[in-house]
Amino acid sequence: MKELKGPKALFADDVPALDRFGVIVAAMKRVVGRGIWAEFGVGSGKSASWILNSMMSGEEFWLFDSWEGLPEDWQIREGLTVKKGELKKAQPNFRDPRVRYVKGWFDDTVEQTVAHWRQGISFVHVDCDLASSTKTVLEAIQPLIFPGTVFVFDELHGFDEWLRGEWQAFTRWRKTNKIVFDWIAREEPGRDALSAALVIR
């Protein structure tokens, strides 16, 4: 895959542009086999609720978040920076036996938790915002990724500083581990930062 120079270079014309929920649904439809589902960055639980309501399987769904806001500043564009500690939310309470909560900073929780998993990961929703947090997650779950694992990155493109966010961490992880993937869908313009879904070959 050639080095990408800008957002328009990310996607071929045949990659469907959908709303945020549509991207998640399209990704879920590509999941095959049994494996763990996980979301990194839960916030109020809006996207987790969408996923739970659309899941047809009884797989465990692990929700990771500090619920203390961002661990560092996140610049979206000039004049728009989400400050450290902002985006703090109350932990949602899903009354669903598939849900497992892991509360804490990713540096303190992700590697330690996934080390005990005995299944591969089927579905990953990365809503980390920051390159540093995304890097922590991807490096920790690497041993559990297999051909067919589906990813949704919630803030992958579509904003001025996209090359320094989730995309930066994903690109470095992909190159280091020689990851090959196919796009599933991308989010159409409408938010400050846009999502995209992919499947590992």
Can you put this structure into words, describing what you see?
It is built from 5 helices and 10 strands; from the N terminus they run E-H-E-H-E-E-E-E-H-E-H-E-H-E-E. It is α/β, with parallel strands linked by helices. About 25% of the residues lie in helices and about 25% in strands. Helix 1 runs parallel beside helix 2 (about 45-55), helix 3 (about 105-115) runs parallel beside helix 4 (about 130-140) and helix 4 packs parallel to helix 5. The longest helix has 12 residues, at about 165-175. Strand 7 (about 120-125), helix 4 (about 130-140) and strand 8 form a beta-alpha-beta unit. Strands 1-9-10-8-7-2-3-6 form an 8-stranded mixed β-sheet, sandwiched between helices. Strands 4-5 form a two-stranded antiparallel ribbon. The model is unreliable at about 1-5 (pLDDT under 50). It is globular. It has a single domain (about 20-195), classed as Rossmann fold, CATH 3.40.50.
